[in-house]
Amino acid sequence: MDIPSCDMCEHPAAWRRPWDNTLVCIMHFNKSFLKKVQKTINKYQMLKRDDIIAIGLSGGKDSVVLLDVMAKLQKNHSTKLIAISIDEGIENYRENGLHFAKLAAERANVDHHIFSYKEFFGYDLDEALMILGENRLSPCSYCGPFRRKLLNEAARKVGATKLITGHNADDEAQTLLMNVMRGDLLKTLHSNPIPKFKNKAFVNRVKPFRRTTEQEIVVYANLNQIPYQEMSCPHAVEAYRGKIRNILTNLSVDDPGVIFSIINSADSLHDLGGLVSNNLKHDGNKEIFDCKKCGEPTNNDLCNSCRLIIEIENRENM
Ligand code: SF4
Ligand code: ZN
Fold first, then answer.
1. Which of 30, 44, 132, 244 could in theory staple to 193 by disulfide, Cβ–Cβ 3.0 to 4.6 A?
2. Of the bound ligands, which one is closest to the alpha carbon of residue 92?
């Protein structure tokens, strides 16, 4: 079978971009991939020239590809890149992820630091779930806030001025739709893609893959032979997100640009939120207080993770 050639050169095509049907060879795919990430960073003013960037490196496809791309883009800037991984203490899963995270850090030639729930909170996730027993929330309801908190703490510890994560366009579109369907559209205003939090204890978090689809990330990893963790977390049963994901996958068959349309809607919402924020109770730049227990930035008296740790401690002492 004849392999068609790239629309931009004579080399064999490696991929057909679904939304404009352009055929691209490996070189042109990589070139446009890096260009798109740089454009996204510029569009949302995600990074400054002298930023020290911590990257959340789980070992999954999004984070290892992000590290590879950022290491390449960073060569043109004076920013510094440091990888941080979180060890939740999930048996038969995290060890495997850390293996791929280490490989990725070596490949990109960046410092790599691992922070564990056990060391920071006093409990592994598995241990905490055992203490909490049957009558508890889902594992992700504990793990999510713990990870957010520890990532912030880890980023501060390594001296970072920005924290980047591998959330991609599909994740962002799913989140927006989930907020709409749960009647919580204003939540979208909290996730302003332009970093704005002023609290010193909070390292601003940005997502350079906001306009890069999951499919592009998988193609990048495969074409560049970047190994990543393929195993899913045994606790990952976010059924609602899965349903939204299926809806978007089906819609994308007829309208491959639908993900970008949703992201554009989210952007318009942020613009609108900026215009009317004085009239909104929840605006995109919510007021931040210090948690009464740990001093971390939070919207309430106690941060989420301190509240959950208190729940675990109480259960343990029962
Ligand atoms: Fe944690 Fe849930 Fe993610 Fe597993 S799926 S790592 S429990 S947040
Ligand atoms: Zn706290």
1. 44
2. 1
* Ligand 1 site, residue 233, Cβ cutoff 6 A: yes
Q: Is 273 in the pocket of ligand 1 (CB under 6 A)?
A: no
CB 295 within 8 A of CB 302: no
For residue 86 and ligand 1, the question of a CB distance below 6 A is answered with: no
Atom of ligand 1 nearest to the CA of 139: 7
Ligand with smallest separation from the Cα of 126:
1
Residue 1 burial class via C-beta count within 10 angstroms: exposed 0-12, middle 13-18, buried 19 and up: exposed
pTM strictly above 0.90: yes
Q: At what angle do helices 239-254 and 169-181 cross, to 10 degrees?
A: 110
Question: Is 59 near ligand 1, meaning CB less than 6 Å away?
Answer: no
pLDDT truncated to tens, each residue of the chain (318 aa)?
688 999 999 999 999 999 999 999 999 999 999 999 999 999 999 999 889 999 999 999 999 999 999 999 988 777 899 999 999 999 999 999 999 999 999 999 999 999 999 999 999 999 999 999 988 888 999 999 999 999 999 999 999 999 999 999 999 999 999 989 888 877 777 677 887 766 777 899 999 999 999 999 999 999 999 999 999 999 887 668 888 999 999 999 999 999 999 999 989 888 876 655 544 444 445 567 888 998 877 888 998 999 999 999 999 988
Which listed ligand is nearest to 148 at the C-alpha?
1
What is the distance in A from the centroid of ligand 2 to the CA of 301? 8
236 lines ligand 1 (CB under 6 A): yes
> Quick one: CATH architecture of 47-316?
3-Layer(aba) Sandwich (3.40)
φ, ψ at 60 (rounded to 5°):
-75, 170
